[in-house]
Amino acid sequence: MEVLRIIKEHLPKDRPVRVTKITLKVGKLTAIIPETFKFCMDVITQDTPAQGAEIVINEVPLKIECQECGEVNELNEPIFICPNCQSHKIEILSGRELYIESIEVEEPDEEVCYGNQGS
Ligand SMILES: [Zn+2]
């Protein structure tokens, strides 16, 4: 999976680290269901430094700008019609995002506490 490849690229290769937290930006239009995605991440990160990492998903709302009346609206449903004037001439401002916002790692030789994740 693409996300895992990106995570691996972010990890230092010269020393062992453990990924404790991965924060992702996920646009509404990507049709990713957070719960499903978290489950998938649990599976694909098995036996990798990211195993057991906390997955935080920040949903990016679907935002459109109407080319007719200039209204900017946040939509809960992917209906591409301006709620103000019913025009179909709209531009998508956000909602297609899918990227890693941050990755927190823990190095064994450092005393860093990231909270209680159990043992
Ligand atoms: Zn409009």
Structural description of this entry:
This protein starts with a helix and ends in a 13-residue tail after the last strand. Strand 1 (18-27), helix 2 and strand 2 (54-60) form a beta-alpha-beta unit. The longest helix has 11 residues, at 34-44. It is α+β, with helices and mostly antiparallel strands and 119 residues long. The chain has helices at 2-10, 34-44; strands spanning 18-27, 54-60, 62-66, 72-75, 90-94, 98-106. The chain has two helices and six strands. The chain has a domain at 2-60 and 94-106: hypothetical protein PF0899 fold. The model has no long low-confidence stretch (mean pLDDT 84). The protein has a three-stranded mixed beta sheet with strand order 2-1-6, with helices on one face. The protein has a three-stranded antiparallel beta sheet with strand order 4-3-5, with no helix packed on it. Helix content is 17%, strand content 34%. It binds zinc ion (ZN). The site of zinc ion has 8 residues, from loops.
Strand content: 25-35%
The averaged pLDDT comes out at: 84
CATH architecture of the domain at 2-60 and 94-106: 2-Layer Sandwich
Helix-and-strand structural type? alpha+beta
Unreliable segments (pLDDT under 50, ≥5 consecutive)? Answer: none
Could you tell me the CATH topology label of the domain at 2-60 and 94-106. hypothetical protein PF0899 fold
Please give the share of residues in helix.
10-25%
- Helix count from the secondary structure assignment: 2
Bound small molecules, which ones? zinc ion
- Order of strands, widest sheet: 2-1-6
What composes the largest sheet? 3 strands, mixed
Shape descriptor reads elongated
Given this structure, which CATH class of the domain at 2-60 and 94-106 is correct? Alpha Beta
Count of distinct strands: 6
Q: Provide the gyration radius in Å.
A: 19 Å
What is the ordering of alpha helices and beta strands? Answer: HEHEEEEE
**How far from one another are the termini?**
27 Å
